Write a sequence for this structure.
């Protein structure tokens, strides 16, 4: 075998190795491309899941906000009712005739009426027990 033949054999072996490496590179490129597609799908799924989670959080936040608003409204109503009751008690305790009226009405209902130190709640309860018969100015 001539030197030329040996070189051709070596060149053929190198070509085979190059072909093998080319095939491996193509295979790797295909895998990378496939991975990129999977990555894109995963990214899309993650985006959808993120959007769904965000929507659920917004709904949850809206529900919590609505619950808080309802509680605030209930507290405002209760506060308004208490203010009306306090206004009524204020009118009652500023009327000396009502104290005399209270002393004579429902004295056995468990209220302790002793002089000017009558409990406000007692006055108000006495008024409620009088079923509104006492005229308020």
């Amino acid at each position: 075998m001539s030197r030329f033949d040996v070189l051709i054999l070596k060149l053929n072996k190198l070509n085979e190795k190059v072909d093998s490496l080319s095939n491996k590179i193509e295979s790797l490129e295909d895998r990378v491309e496939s991975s990129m597609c999977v990555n894109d799908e995963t990214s899309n799924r993650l985006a959808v899941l993120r959007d769904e989670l965000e929507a659920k959080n917004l709904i949850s936040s809206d529900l919590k906000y609505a619950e808080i608003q309802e509680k605030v409204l209930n507290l405002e109503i209760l506060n308004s009712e208490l203010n009306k009751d306090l206004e009524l008690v204020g009118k009652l305790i500023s009327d000396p005739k009502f104290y005399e009226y209270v002393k004579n009405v429902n004295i056995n209902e468990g209220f302790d009426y002793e002089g000017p130190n009558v409990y406000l709640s007692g006055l108000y309860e006495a008024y409620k027990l009088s079923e509104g018969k006492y005229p308020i100015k």
Notes: Residues 3-78 form one domain. The first helix runs from residue 3 to 93. The chain has a mean pLDDT of 76.
